[in-house]
Amino acid sequence: MSAFSLPSLPIGFTSGLVSTGSIVAAVFFLKFWRRTQDGLFLAFAAAFVLMAINQASPFLLGIPNERASGIYLFRMAAFLLIIWAILHKNIPRRD
Fold first, then answer.
1. DSSP 1-57
2. Whole-model pTM over 0.70
């Protein structure tokens, strides 16, 4: 048993599944962005890539507690990017 409370194989498998799902979502948003050139889709794609990094990093780097390492900052950056993109799209600009 490693520093994780559960055996590392199920954690790694689950982390890989979630990371892969995030990458698949990012690819779909990139496809939508290429079709529409809407920056909201590009921001969502980037946010999902950040979420994939956030999910895979603790396992790949062997970090047992993400709160102590700062890995959670990827997740925070992803959510801030989503919030910024939504606000940027919906708040009218003054010309």
1. --SSSS-HHHHHHHHHHHHHHHHHHHHHHHHHHHHH--HHHHHHHHHHHHHHHHHHH
2. yes
